[in-house]
Amino acid sequence: MYDITLIVNGVPREARVPARRLLSDCLRHDLGLTGTHVGCEHGVCGACTVLLDGEPVRSCLTFAVTVDGREITTVEGLATGGRLSPVQRAFAECHGLQCGFCTPGFLCTTTAFLRENPAPTDEEVLEGISGNLCRCTGYQNIAKSVHRAAELLAEEPS
């Protein structure tokens, strides 16, 4: 067993985990943050995507002990001050979700994507979300949500 400290959504959190505990399991079972969903458990679907030091990673492929001391942002940490993030607001406004299972991964992926590309083209949006799978939608509203999130982010004061 290993004692680790993760900065999760801005808060230091400690856990005692076996060497092979996946970050997704640590977040869900050890820390009680169930917003991160586990779909395929092979890193293909993207449902488990979280931000590691601001970059999207598949938490189902990452051992918790390898991220000791690092900053993790989960879907629970995207909202600040009780207010949904622009990405979360855009997905709700544009109906970019249906059952919601894939949504946490899309929200984390989109947050990082728009930080790097604040005004993406249609093709760039499709490429940006291509690592996340949704079984319910045809992706049209997800793509609209990404564009709307870009608009909302551009409207925010710097």
Report the order of strands and helices.
EEHEEEHHHH
CATH superfamily heading of the largest domain: Beta-grasp domain
CA-atom Rg in angstroms: 15 Å
How would a crystallographer describe the biggest sheet?
A: 5 strands, mixed
Structural class: alpha+beta
Give the integer mean of the pLDDT values: 95
Topology at a glance:
Blueprint: E1 2-8, E2 11-17, H1 23-30, E3 49-52, E4 55-58, E5 71-73, H2 86-93, H3 103-116, H4 122-128, H5 140-155
Q: Would you write up a description of this structure?
A:
The protein is an alpha+beta fold. The chain folds into two domains: 2-77, Beta-grasp domain (Ubiquitin-like (UB roll)); 86-155, [2Fe-2S]-binding domain (DNA polymerase, domain 1), CATH 1.10.150. It has helices spanning 23-30, 86-93, 103-116, 122-128, 140-155, and strands spanning 2-8, 11-17, 49-52, 55-58, 71-73. A five-stranded mixed β-sheet has the order 2-1-5-3-4, with helices on both faces. Strand 3 and strand 4 (55-58) form a beta hairpin. Helix 2 crosses helix 5.
